[in-house]
Amino acid sequence: MALLEINDLCVNYGMITALKGISFEVNEGEVIALIGANGAGKTTTLHALTGLIPAKSGSIKLNGKELTKVPAHKIVEMGMAHVPEGRRIFQHLSVLDNLKLGAYTRKDKANIEKDMQMVYERFPRLAERKNQIAGTLSGGEQQMLAMGRALMSNPKIIVMDEPSMGLSPILVSEIFDIITSIRKDGTTVLLVEQNAKKALAIADRAYVLETGNIVLSGNASDLIKDESIKKAYLGE
136: which DSSP letter? Predict the structure, then answer.
């Protein structure tokens, strides 16, 4: 059974249909890339999955449980964490407090401390700056904090929205290495990313969204060689 199953999902913004009945699935342990042009519906998809906007119709199932009527904070408890576009960290709080807030749905105090150490091991810069105000971190460090905060909820699956946006090429490579290591440690990843080349390089499978429809899907290693994909998304 797929960890995350989306069937015939429709989402409207007022009179505009942003998602026109999309279906896809994410299996446990995969990195899945969702690629497409600006305005294709990628962020809308993630917002619908994590309960930030309501689905008009269709089904979203996590571990076989329907999510379309579940409030966002409960979805976190059920095992799905969101690293939003633009990071959305708590700018005026310390790095440590941001990470603690990532674990706010958890009751297992002893394991929270263990996971905090795990986050510091994965992101040594966060450990060095744990008492620093988050808004004073560099863009790359803020992205690491957003990812660390999501990991603190101990998720089965993390959905990430444009994690490389606005970062220097060297930091982009670092962020993608981190995504690969998150997956190695057993967390499934659904990745929305403008940098289609990088996304396809680390993904198992990918889906291509165009104006609210999935128009193509397959193994990432095949799609990266596809001429239409190269032209549209890889700048070749």
Answer: G
In angstroms, the CA 92 to CA 53 distance is: 26
**Per-block average pLDDT, block size 10, for the chain (236 residues)?**
94 90 96 92 95 95 95 92 86 92 84 91 92 90 93 94 89 91 94 92 96 94 90 76
Q: b/e per residue, 117-155, with b = 16+ CB within 10 A?
A: ebbbebbebbbebbeeebeebeebbbbbbbbbbbbbbbb
User: How close are the terminal C-alpha atoms of the chain, in Å?
Assistant: 37
Neighbours of 224 (CB within 10 A): 19
Q: In degrees rounded to 5, what are phi and psi of residue 138?
A: -70, 170
Predicted TM-score of the model (pTM)? 0.92
Q: Is 63 left (phi over 0), alpha (psi -120 to 50) or beta?
A: left
CA separation for the pair 28, 92 (Å, rounded): 35
Torsion of CA 136, 138, 141, 142, to 10 degrees: 60
